[in-house]
Structures are given as structure tokens and as C-alpha cells.
Amino acid sequence: MSLDPMLWALKDAPVADTLERVVLVTLAERCARADGCTAFPSRDTIAETALADPKTVQRVLRRLETRGLIGKGDQSAARYLRADRRPTVWDLLIPYSWFPNPERMNAERAQAGLPPLTRADRPDIESAPERKKRADAGKTRSKARGDSQSPRDEGDGGTTSPERGDYESHTGGLEAPRTSPKNLPSDSPLLDAAPTPATPAAAVVPDEVGGEDPSTTDDPATAFVDALPYGRQVPNRSTRERLITRTRDAYAAGWTPLALKRHLTDDTRSAKSLVAVYLHRLAELPDPKAVVASVAADATYTPPTYNAPAAPDAVPPNVALAAARAAMREARDGRARGRDHRPWMPTD
Prior knowledge:
With 348 residues, the protein is mainly alpha-helical. It is 37% helix and 3% strand.
């Protein structure tokens, strides 16, 4: 970062509004040299600094480029970044006449292997266009409230309040509004008709979560598809219909529900989308004869039972171990005693 681009962007750049100033300062902060070249912050980085939307930042950059405050620089400076994430390299077109010491700036460019800048390369920039003023600027706003206060006198063109039904306001208090039964028509259908019990509405299944309840359908393919494990991703209506159609085709080809379920759900721990795995495997089903036979054999196989030997009532002693212990006791008892090192005590 160099100080010259920051000073120009903060004080002398002919910007039109505050947002242009912030975007230009963000570019100046990331310039590689004092000439204002080689700044390539991403659009999201500028938007985060300017507290604006990325699309708004893109429009501001186009305005700055159109008025000659910035221009596209050497794009190879960002070649170390991935092509799909590589931002645009911008140059701040600081006028040559603005630099207090252009020789120092050109010397820095010479060290980087770049040609010196001249007045023709960096001409002066025109002033920013004047901001449009509002048509009502400087005019006193009327304090009239329109029709919010209607006059009470009919002769002044105002409106009167409509009648308020069956209740009136009397001096000394208010009466609670009530509806007299005598005002109801004698032939009202609400009184003559007997109440009919409400018919429960049919359950509506949204398009995102599947179809009808598997417990109420008689189609084995539908019940099979609804019973499959899906994890967090549930198939929508169209995907569910595709699964049901392919399951019916598999049944027609000779697959059994047990064999088909084992084929679809086998080795799916690392799958990101179980729905996609089921669709792919249903589309490329192998010959069902060998698979169905293998599954049927596994279903009828009963593993052998292990019968443990009966435990003996008493464990016989280890004769060799007992003899060895007896020999050790005899050797210990026959060994000569050493000197008694106990302290002498007088006896009576």
C-alpha cells in the first residue's frame, strides 16, 4: 500500500457521491505502488467495506471507469488466483500533474521494469457531474392534511357519519350495542336449517415432500418407494413418480422387494444424495436372477448353534503345582536359621 493513491482518493479525486469515494479509497488501499496501479480486490471485498450490495459496487466501478478515474490494468498480476475466482485488476488513473514528485514515482516504476508515466498517459480528469436537485428543493411543504379532517357541516361539502345501527348514545351514559331478535327475518335459513356436520378436508400434500400416504395405497411399488430411507433429503413429487415407475419396471423384470431394497441401500454411507443413488441404480439394474437367488439363500440360511460344554461340578486340583509348593515348604523349614538380630531384653 502506498500513501499517494490514498491521499488522492480521499481528498482530490472528482467523485460524485459518497459511495464512489468509498469504493475508490478501497481500491487505493490495495494499490501496489505510488502510481496507483495493480489493485485487484474482489467485488465482494469492496461491497463489505462500502456496506453496499455487490451489484451496486459493480455499477459504481463502471461509472468510475466511464469518467476516467480508474482503468483496467495488467490482468496478469492476478494470474496466481484461480480463473473462476480471479478479480479484475484496476489502475487508479491519477493525473500526472497531481504528483508532487513524479520523478520518484517513475523511479519506482523503473525498478519494477515498467516505462515511465507522462502527462499524455495520465491527463487531468474532468470534474464530477453535478448531482440532480429535487424539484421541490427549497419549497416549504404544505401543512394541510388533505381529507383527514373532514368538516362536520354538510354545507361545507363534508361528509356525515352513517347511522350506527340499533344503538344510540344518550346523555348521561352509553348503552351496550345489542341486536334485537325481532330484527331477524322470520324465514331466515339460519334458523330453519339444521346444522350439518363439517366434512373433513382431504389432506393436501405439498409438492416438495412427496405424495400420498404409503399406508393408504395398494400399489406395492409406491409403498416400497415411500419406505426407503432418504436421510435429510426427501424426494419431491416428480422425483417420487420416477422412482415408483422404475420400481414397477424392476418388479416386472423379476426383482423381489427384499432383493431390490438390498441392492439400492447397499454401501450408501458416503452418498450425499440417497435419492440420486436410488435413481441411478434403478436405471442400471443388473440381471435379477443371481441377486434374487443370493438374497433368497441368505434369507433361508440359519447359522449353526454353539453348544457349550457342561461345566464340571468340581475342578480337580493341580497335582504338580501342589507337589512343588510342598517341596518349597520343606526346603524352607529345613534351612538353617541365621543369627538372631533382635535386641537383648532382660528376663525375669
